[in-house]
Amino acid sequence: MIEVYALKIDRRIESIEFNSLMHYVDKSRQNAISRFCKYEDAQRSLFSELLIRSIAADKLKINSSAIQFDKNKFGKPFIKNLPGFCFNISHSGEWVVCAIDNEEIGIDIEEICPIDLQIANEFFTKQEIIEMQSKLLEQKLLYFYDLWTLKESYIKAWGKGLSIPLDSFSLKVNAFQNIELKTNNDFRECYFKQYDIDPDYKMAVCSLKSEFPKHVTVEDMDEFIESIK
Length: 229
Prior knowledge:
Layout: E1 3-8, H1 15-22, H2 27-34, H3 39-60, E2 69-71, E3 77-79, E4 86-92, E5 95-101, E6 105-111, H4 120-123, H5 126-133, H6 137-158, E7 169-173, E8 179-183, E9 191-194, E10 201-207, E11 217-219, H7 221-228
Parallel strand pairs: 1-11
Antiparallel strand pairs: 1-5, 2-3, 4-5, 6-10, 7-8, 9-10
């Protein structure tokens, strides 16, 4: 069964608390987090791992310290020796989100920021660009992020990352969030759902199943921190 979680990082934690939480992730992750130049990036990375560790430990009834992560050759993470537990994580701005299932799944969240929409020419298909350009001016940016998060969720669910050409598949958001996929790729029997957890963000999930949860489980930051200590 698909489950979707979100954690809002609504404050900057102090260094003492940060260092204390670092003990709940393994050494390789600690080293990776320590290499971030920006504190915000390090904090998002730390909470990303803490979130999936907490979810996996609860669902699998194991100790968090027993969870070992690895990556496939395209960089998608998985938990060693637990092929029946699939997950994907994304983070942007104040949010860390995670989707889990017993089959491959992908999730993406993006903060809606002003951008030069000409960038769409580098990543979108002609059909997607035409559809975006048909929108009213104030809707074009939102539709750009609709497509971006949907496309990211698709390549993450497939598990092959950016080895998949972004113009090898085309997506369209119809009325009532009905999402249409057109592709000749092998990975085509999949489904999408968008979630509105924050008006300043776009979020999408791609799954091999059509039955998505209606709501996202939103974790309170302070309660979450207390739960893992």
